[in-house]
Amino acid sequence: MQTSLESFYHALETLEVRGINVAEKRKEIQEEVERFKKEVESVKRHDIEDKKMSDLINEHLTSMKSKIGQWEQYFQEQAKREKFRESLENNFIIIIYGKVKAGKSTLGNFVAQHCLGTQKPEFRKYDKAGEHKTKELEVQEDGFAVKITECTSEIQLFKLGGMVWVDTPGLSSMTKENGELASQYIGAADYIIFPTSSDAPLQNDEITQIQELIRLSKQDHIRLIITKSDRTEEDEINNEIVKILHNKTAENRKLQEEDITNRLQDNLKDKTNQTYPNFTADKVFSISVITAKKGLEENDQELFEGSNITRFYESMRETLEKAPKLKQQSPYKTLIALIDSILQKDSKQDLKGVRNDLEEVRKLIKLKRKECENLVANLRTEIGLKINHKIATQTRGINRHNFESIFIALQEEIKTETEQSIQSEFAELIEDFSIRFNVLMPKLDTEVKDEYVKVERVKERSLLERTINFLTLDLFCSEETSTIKKVIGNNIDELKEHNRKMLQDTYQKKYLEKCKNQIERQLFAPCDSLAGELNACITRFEAALSRLRDKISSEDSKIN
User: Fold this and answer.
1) Cα 483–chain centre separation
2) Separation CA 463–CA 203 (nearest Å)
3) Nearest to 126 by CA among 112, 113, 139
4) Which segment of 276-280, 324-328, 426-430, 454-458 scores lowest on mean pLDDT?
5) Which residues contact 294 (CB under 8 A, 6 or more apart)?
6) For residue 299, how far is the Cα from the chain centroid?
7) Does the first or last residue of the chain, that is N or C, have fewer Cβ atoms within 10 Å of its Cβ?
8) How many Cβ atoms sit within 10 Å of the Cβ of residue 54?
9) Tens of pLDDT, residues 381-397
10) 119 pLDDT exceeds 50?
């Protein structure tokens, strides 16, 4: 039975892999992030008087800076991960990654304990959970530590031939730092074994974790297995109740494997209906480490073969054949995944989300502009009607003596009411906005003048003068005429119309135009400027990262 496992261990003896240093490429990405941060910080901030718009923009900037901070934190954490990876540069790194009690440490110990007699696995542990300072590797002699409740609380590993087998803390661990520790190191994996317990296979949080691994471009570097595929039955032997260990039936296993692959494919399909070969029915299978171990210990061929452990070993031997390529691809895939995580198209938290936030700001600006235009049009009509009404009602009985005083009072009243109306209406449209005008009141024409007509008057002549004029054939004593001015009215109606037009031009047009310009200058233009600058920053950043991604993908595709 042991011999059926040996081909895997022999392959480890001849396994040679060579890591690729991608530090310079990672540095290029980091420099682009730093450049983007500086550009965002250098965007000119303006005092925006509308509270809603100001809050939205500040929220957007805070979100953007927070996301940049997360990217920066990634590079800081990457330094620790790279130290781990560099120490294992010429080893094929297999990380077993899954939930608490999924049988991770048990499987790792089985692989380590059943190696060739000429081999000796070297156990180590790395970076205790909750401590951020990297520890030096500590040699262990007794295999992976396994606790009933919490399981692994450290990064544990063993080296065997050209392989490093890494055991991680359980996801969904009772200790938050343990689960985070596992996630931090998964990027260093050249290959991932993802166990799910047969007791409750592939729960929703496990699907989420697999989706995250795919986001990290690990879809071609994952082996999903169903562990603990065994059962116990009670029997009576010599009047005693004993528990007997069995493998689960082939039918039961097939049902679980089909259910898992169907649910995975349903949950992992993207918009292009992409499927993932590593999660098809022929790639997902069940094993029982405990029956394999018991079968070896008790020389029970049926129990051992039914454990399906040999299929696991065969799949791992096939993986070792691809190990050199997987080893070199892994760091490239990690960098591509990093860029994609920044550029991803369906996230509210990355650049797509940032751009969506900007679009919300622009939509709000557009909406406010339209509302402002409608408000100005309505106010223009309202003010015009108000001026006409006041002149019509308050100038009845006006005369040359009270004309000036009535129109001065009328103008003050119109000015005050117009300013109040504008302030009130725009305050409803734009929070915390104050209209500050300095439009001079027009100088009204209040000089009332009489209106005249010229009338010719003939001087009345005496009888003697008329007789002489007749006898001399109009040569003497002709008629005398003169022109006089006759008052027929005054210019009050003309002045009223003239002043009405002046008041309308000032308050219906100039006041409102200045109001509109002030809002444009103090609110819309600064918002447009800020949104435009941020959009330019994002566009440049996206283009730079896309170029880097194409460059890295090109190098990745050349790996044979």
Assistant:
1) 89
2) 136
3) 139
4) 454-458
5) 245, 300, 303
6) 58
7) C
8) 18
9) 999 999 999 999 998 88
10) yes
Residues 333, 136: Cα–Cα separation, whole Å: 28
- Residue-by-residue DSSP string for 45-109: P-----HHHHHHHHHHHHHHHHHHHHHHHHHHHHHHHHHHHHTTTTSEEEEE--BTTSSHHHHHH
Instruction: Give the H/E segment covering residue 255.
Output: helix 250-268
Half-sphere exposure of 166 (CA within 13 A, CB side): 29
Q: What are phi and psi of 369, to 5 degrees?
A: -60, -45
> What confidence score (pLDDT) does residue 96 get?
93
C-alpha to C-alpha distance for 541 and 352, rounded to whole angstroms: 12
Angle at 149 between CA 171 and CA 313, to 5 degrees: 60
Q: Which residues of 460-470 are buried (b: 16+ CB within 10 A; e: fewer)?
A: eeeeebeeebe
- The total of other beta-carbon atoms located within 10 Å of residue 100's CB is 20
Instruction: Measure the CA–CA gap between 353 and 59, rounded to whole angstroms.
Output: 13
Which one, of 104, 103, 117, lies nearest residue 2 by Cα? 117
Domain boundaries, given as residue ranges, for the chain: 3-18+90-343, 361-525
Rounded to 5°, the CA angle 40-44-45 comes to 100
What residues have CB less than 8 Å from 297, skipping those under 6 apart? none
Give the residue ranges of DSSP H helices in 274-350.
289-297, 301-306, 309-321, 323-343
pLDDT per residue as tens digits for the range 164-201: 999 987 665 445 555 566 677 788 899 999 999 999 99
pTM: 0.71
Under 8 Å between Cβ of 346 and 482: no
Say if residues 110 and 289 touch (Cβ distance below 8 Å).
Answer: yes
Tokens, residue 245:
């260990």
Asked if 105 contacts 144 with a C-beta cutoff of 8 angstroms, the reply is: yes
Closest by Cα among 107, 144, 97 to 122:
144
The two structure tokens encoding residue 281: 């029915």
445, 534 contact by CB (below 8 A) = no
Cβ atoms within 10 Å, residue 117: 7
- Reduce the DSSP state of residue 155 to 3 states and report it: strand
Are 446 and 495 within 8 A, CB to CB?
A: yes
CA distance 468 to 428: 90
Res 450 pLDDT > 70: no
User: How far, in Å, are 401, 448, 453, 489, 492 from residue 486 at the CA level?
Assistant: 21, 17, 5, 9, 18
Are the C-beta atoms of 125 and 138 separated by less than 8 Å?
yes
Rounded average pLDDT over 406-423: 88
Rounded CA-CA distance 265/414 in Å is: 73
Q: Higher-confidence residue: 142 or 515?
A: 515
CATH class (in words) of the domain with range 3-18+90-343: alpha beta
Contact 106, 152 (CB under 8 A): no
The H or E element that residue 156 is part of is strand 154-160
pLDDT at 471: 64
- Arithmetic mean of pLDDT over the chain: 81
